[in-house]
Design a protein that fits this description.
By secondary structure, the chain is mainly α. 76% of the residues lie in helices and 0% in strands.
Length: 308
């Protein structure tokens, strides 16, 4: 992993900006869900973001894949990386705090290590990784709390839904490594979002009814933010930071997103988190730092592992 001390001031600035953008996405999604259904919220996110990214691909004149298998891989990637996690997390946010959702979202990197070890021969679970993963899961258990683990209710189900979403993110990373290697990242991202749009737009129509833009101004602003800025623009910024700082240092963003989401949840939504959530995040952060302590992950970050 590149030494964080060697990151340029510009890279640090863009890394912090990326963390703030993704941290605020939890708030914008929750605001939109006050008026529209989960399926519709996801359809707006993937649909508009796909259109924006295809526009960027066209402007840059990036080559498009012609192999039908690649387009099939885009569809699977869209399911694993967008349809499942966006839907599960969106539903989860209806029942738990945005700050807690952001903390649980950070487990993507933990699940990523486990999935990579199971799928790829060159990603073994070393002692360092075992310790990091163990701390990560301990942090999750602590953040959720003993009461939630003992008394299963709708909030417990929501927390489980968010964790299922992060596990799907981890599966998406492994799928991308197996099927999408060598493609320009923006083409892969646009193709993935197109695949998820083909599923979510009709699904939203069936589940929530016709998709409309006749919404409250705050809802439209929330949709515009999480679709255009927190998805399309964030992908563009992510790949810039990745090139400047390296994959290992981009993982620092994982530790910066929850504080942003927590603060915004407190200020805008009046949320309060149980102290165990903060303790759990501290343990989870320690696990992530151990995982990233040395060595470079071989698994390419085709999907931003640190975020939504």
């Amino acid at each position: 992993m590149a030494d964080p001390k060697n990151i340029s001031p510009r890279a640090w600035a863009e890394l912090l900006l990326l963390a703030m953008i993704w941290g605020a996405s939890f708030l914008s999604i929750r605001v939109a869900l006050d008026e529209i259904g989960v399926a519709t919220a996801v359809a707006h996110r993937v649909g508009w973001a796909a259109l924006i990214l295809w526009g960027v691909v066209a402007v840059r004149r990036l080559p498009l894949p012609r192999n039908p298998r690649i387009w099939g891989a885009f569809l699977v990637m869209g399911i694993l990386n967008n349809v499942i996690p966006f839907s599960m997390m969106g539903w989860g946010q209806l029942h738990i705090e945005t700050g807690l959702t952001s903390i649980l979202n950070a487990t993507t990197a933990i699940f990523g290590v486990v999935v990579a070890a199971a799928v790829f021969a060159d990603e073994p679970l070393s002692l360092r990784r075992i310790i990091g993963v163990s701390l990560g899961f301990l942090g999750v258990a602590t953040a959720i709390g003993i009461e939630a683990l003992a008394n299963f209710d709708i909030q417990s189900l929501a927390q489980l839904a968010v964790l299922c979403g992060t596990f799907s993110y981890a599966l998406a990373v492994a799928w991308a490594r197996k099927t999408l290697g060598g493609l320009p990242p923006l083409v892969a991202a646009a193709g993935m979002l197109t695949g998820s749009s083909l599923i979510m737009v009709p699904a939203a129509w069936i589940i929530d009814g016709p998709i409309t833009l006749a919404l409250q101004p705050r809802t439209l602003m929330a949709i515009a933010y999480y679709a255009a800025i927190a998805t399309a623009l964030a992908y563009l910024l992510y790949y810039r930071v990745l090139a400047m700082a390296g994959a290992g240092n981009v993982m620092l963003c994982t530790l910066l997103i929850p504080p942003v989401a927590i603060v915004l949840g407190v200020i805008v939504l009046g949320e309060t988190l149980h102290p165990s959530a903060y303790v759990g995040f501290a343990i989870l952060a320690a696990g992530l730092l151990i995982l990233n302590g040395k060595g470079r992950r071989k698994t390419p970050l085709s999907k931003p592992q640190v975020a939504r």
